[in-house]
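Subject: for your reference before the review

Hello V.,

The reviewers asked for a structural picture of the protein, and I figured it would be easier to keep everything in one thread rather than splitting it across files. Below is the amino acid sequence we used in the manuscript, unchanged from the supplementary table.
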Amino acid sequence: MYMYGSMDYIQILFSSQSITDLISRIDAIKTLTNYDKGILDELLRIENEIADKKQKIENDKIALENLKKESNDTIATQVDAKKEKQNLMAAMYDDKSGLEAELAAEEAESAAIQKLILAEMDPSRNFQNKKGYYLWPTPGYKHLTSNFGYRIHPIYGYRIFHSGVDIGAANKSKIISPGNGIVILAKYYGGYGNAVIIDMGGGVTMLFGHCSSLNVKKGDYVVAGQIIAHVGSTGASTGPHLHFEVRQNGTAVNPLPWVIY
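And here is what came back from the structure prediction:
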């Protein structure tokens, strides 16, 4: 079939010597045509396959560039975070003496509260209150954001004894007296902010700190359930909550066993 070289198919047909030869040449041309179409189809398939692979290579290249950029961005972010941490640590160490002074002042304040309570309370008073039956001071809010005992201070970052519990509550929500008693303090008091202390009798006192406003004054007699103040964030506070303490003869104890929780 290749004896005709590059001759045109028409020339091949016209050069036939007989009808038999013509029919033979027609069959040969059909075969060649089908063969050429097969080659063309294969070439198109190979061309498409090459184009697909080329596009995949381009896509992989773009993905690699994006990954490289993301990696560089992540490294840059980590470097920035490390620098920021180093700066904060440096600032903390520079201000360590200031923090220690603040903590010393807070401890002195707690000691002063204890001294004030011992001076103002009257252990002989009996208001018919009973441990375990005092009312919860923030109706509708019972979530504790900080427990009684040692903790990491939310402002200073030091491990320090927490003399009460912190109750998360909405700003200006009501604070009630858990029992019957006499108000022995109702004013702004250092880190406690606006605070109320109630002598519940029998050597038991309860303190309510960081209030937004106070509804009682020193010397007032209050009854269980009476509104004495409203939740706030005054004093050394990071947000609206009630700092609630129970003290026996001036010493802070865990408030939870004293109240209906």
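For the response letter, the relevant points are probably these. Residues 1-6 have pLDDT under 50 and may be disordered. The first strand starts at residue 144 and ends at 146.

Happy to draft the paragraph if you're swamped.

O.
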